[in-house]
Each structure stands twice: as C-alpha cells, then as structure tokens.
C-alpha cells in the first residue's frame, strides 16, 4: 500500500504524520492517504496498549536492614498526548525505573523492617502517585503499581532462621520440662492417693469412736485422734518395710541356693 501512498494504522495504535520532517497530525486506526511526493510520511507508530515494567530495587529500612523489593508498574501512552509521548521522551522505561527506585527507597527509609512488609500497599501508592505526576508530562498514564515481593538480605534471612530455630528449641525444651515435672508429680502423688483412703477411713472410724468415747471418756479430744492416726501410719510403714526386707532375703536365698 506504500506504493499507492496509502498506509494502514492498526487497532490500539496511532501513527505520527509528518511533512518534510515536521509534525502534521496523529493518525487514528484505519487507512490513510499520504502522498510521499508531496513530502508526507509516517514518522512512526505508537502503541496505546498497557505495558508492564518490573523494577528490582535494594533499599535500607529505618532500623538499618537491607531489603530487595520488586515493583511492577503498568503504564500506557495516552492517545490525546501522543505527540508528547513520541517527541518528548526517548527512553520511557529507564525514566520509570529511576522514579520507582527513588520513591521506593525514600518510602522504605521511613519504616522498620516489620512495617515494610505490613505496609507494602502504602509503598505502592506512594510510588504510583509520584510516578503518575512525573509521567503525565510525557504523555503517559500509570494504570497500576504493585509491590510484588519484599525479600530481606541474605544475612538477615540467616539470622531470622537462627532466631526461629532457637525459639523452637526453647519451646520444645520447656514442654519437655513441664511433662517431666508433671510425671514426677503424678508418680509422687500415686502412693499418697492409694494410702489416703485408708487413712481417711481410719480417721472417720476414730471420729465415730470419739463420739462414742466422749460419753465414757470426756477427756478425749481431736488431738488424741490425730495422735492415734500417726501411730497407725507408723505401724503401716514398719509393716511394709518388714515385708520388703523379707522379700529381699528370700530372693538372696534363692540365688545362693
């Protein structure tokens, strides 16, 4: 179609028309007549589709921690500012990258490491606002800015892993100590639990006996009942020791035999 002085402009695209190197007009999608013999030409095409640029940035937080941030910027050329886009700026992506890094570092410098993770949306909004303001002079609009990823420096990662590992070990040891203490408490309480009903029965019997004794022995008191219980426990203990000693002697005799 160039030989017939006609050009085609595709959808979502505009073309820049010049005559003898001077801007004439912006051509919309469709077929256009450009008689080259009269000095008309298509200087270039300009896409109006959204584009995406991922920017990697290293920043320092308020508490002196280094982080790597990945920001994703979606932008597009504005049709009504196609002339500015085509003639004012030659390297759009480099300019966007510069602004993103500058604003991101300034925003992160005001935050601690933990806040940097929690307030990533605020960082993205700050970048989006400054970028929109700067790029509008060159005919571009910012569709959206996202903070895709925030990664601590490798040394910080290793330190965090060591801290988490130490905390997990401390918790595990604490649980083991508690379980051991509970086991010892249960083992110590079991003999008492088995003997307690016996002593309670004795005390109850003595209490009932005290009621009966009170009619014939007025001097009987609660202290007397407690003394009798202690004596009973003493004899129970001596009986258990004797039984254990007898069993041990029997085992020794069997071994000697």
Secondary structure layout plus pairing:
Layout: E1 6-9, E2 13-19, E3 22-27, E4 30-33, E5 40-47, E6 51-60, E7 66-77, H1 82-88, H2 92-108, H3 113-118, H4 120-135, E8 140-152, H5 154-216, H6 222-256
Antiparallel strand pairs: 1-4, 2-3, 2-5, 6-7, 7-8
Describe this structure in words.
- With 257 residues, this protein is of the alpha+beta class.
- It is 56% helix and 25% strand.
- It has six helices and eight strands, in the order E-E-E-E-E-E-E-H-H-H-H-E-H-H.
- The strands form three sheets. A three-stranded antiparallel β-sheet has the order 3-2-5, with helices on one face. Strands 6-7-8 form a three-stranded antiparallel β-sheet. Strands 1-4 form a two-stranded antiparallel ribbon.
- The protein is rod-shaped and about 130 Å long.
- The termini are far apart.
- The model has no long low-confidence stretch (mean pLDDT 80).
Q: Kindly report the spatial arrangement of strands forming the biggest sheet.
A: 3-2-5
Largest sheet: 3 strands, antiparallel
Shape: rod-shaped
Helix content: 55-70%
Structural class by SSE content: alpha+beta
- Cα end-to-end separation: 122 Å
Which descriptors apply to this entry?
257 residues, 6 helices
Could you give a quick summary of the protein structure above?
Helix content is 56%, strand content 25%. With 257 residues, it is of the alpha+beta class. A three-stranded antiparallel beta sheet has the order 3-2-5, with helices on one face. Strands 6-7-8 form a three-stranded antiparallel beta sheet. Strands 1-4 form a two-stranded antiparallel sheet.
